[in-house]
């Protein structure tokens, strides 16, 4: 959408034609924060001659994500960044097709079914901890990727891919970085050109495809009798007309759940260990609660209700470092927001990174203070203020799964170990498709006596 509309929200001018493109490329999180604090609830961001709108007011966010969600589709940038990897999975499919796929997938995420996966989550945490030694240094971002990968594979496929974990992790990291580079670049080099990066991109994408299709084919041959994994449920799900998902649909949904169930939860765990390391008082309170309630036993589903400080730690970590740090939509029809009429085809942004750091809603917004959640804050906050899993009909289908895994894994690991950031190690948020730590999170492991 051209920026020469008659009535348009204020915002930074930036450079001729480029607008704030270079600022976003250098420091997108800082640029969004500064724009919101300087220009308010609706900000115009000119990028490459096009206008984008950043929305920072909770009631506007609720309006667009809930009341007028049918007018918004995933943005072109989002589809370019994750489309090759996720196909027409739930994350980016639209309209009737999305609704049909969501109905098919929803039963797999019923609370009782998700709770049944809790032993897998605890066992995977125990398995990862067996490899750690007191005093050694590890990249906890990488360790959490390995852990949640095993959880995702066991719950999604009902098998283990432990020997493939390192290759899967490397492939997913490269695919996300490369996809976003291609989507953001003003010079669109075709992925068919035989550059070194394009050849690796194709190779890693083929590797992930072959992995998923192989498991789907094996499941078809062996059947799903006695299995409770998500893939079996997706394969058995039936539309009202009696049809089932095609192999391509199964691949897309499986890849979407694989990425969402592995990547985002791992990031939330890594950021949690970093925040606890930097806030020893909070870490001490968490350990005291776990010791008093669990007395050394692993936490189960029922125990989580008796661990309010654990819940507060997870909530505060998701506030400060939300793995899904921004939502980007394109309106397929004009929408009125506040005093502005936003023309069809505009990219509309809302950023959890920005809203979760708004001093109007969170006292000392940059501080890690789990205590803020201990007196019912979540219930008092207006909708659109705190939304780490999105909101509205397209809220993350795996929210319950992710929160259960976060609670059980943090509880189990924190009972046995504490972590200290290696002095001088830079922890830099890297906003790719998700919010990663650019240089990892290198920490010294300390076993608890």
Any overview of this molecule?
This protein has about 450 residues and is α+β, with helices and mostly antiparallel strands. The protein has one domain (about 55-445): Cytochrome P450 (Cytochrome p450), CATH 1.10.630. About 50% of the residues lie in helices and about 10% in strands. The strands form 4 sheets. A 5-stranded mixed β-sheet has the order 1-2-8-5-3. It has a 3-stranded antiparallel β-sheet with strand order 4-12-9. Helix 3 (about 75-85) runs antiparallel to helix 8 (about 165-185), helix 6 runs antiparallel to helix 7 and helix 6 (about 120-130) runs parallel beside helix 16. The protein starts with 20 loop residues before the first helix and ends with a strand. The model is unreliable at about 1-5 (pLDDT under 50).
Provide key terms for this protein.
449 residues; alpha+beta; 5-stranded mixed sheet; 3-stranded antiparallel sheet; 50% helix; disordered N terminus
Describe the secondary-structure layout.
Layout: H1 21-39, E1 42-47, E2 50-55, H2 58-67, E3 72-74, H3 76-86, H4 95-105, H5 111-115, H6 118-129, E4 137-139, H7 140-157, H8 165-184, H9 196-222, H10 230-236, H11 247-278, H12 280-294, H13 308-320, E5 327-331, E6 335-337, E7 340-342, E8 347-350, H14 352-355, H15 377-380, H16 399-416, E9 417-421, E10 429-431, E11 435-437, E12 442-447
Parallel strand pairs: 2-8
Antiparallel strand pairs: 1-2, 3-5, 4-12, 5-8, 6-7, 9-12, 10-11
Helix pairs in contact: 3-8, 6-7, 6-16, 7-11, 8-9, 9-11, 11-13, 11-16
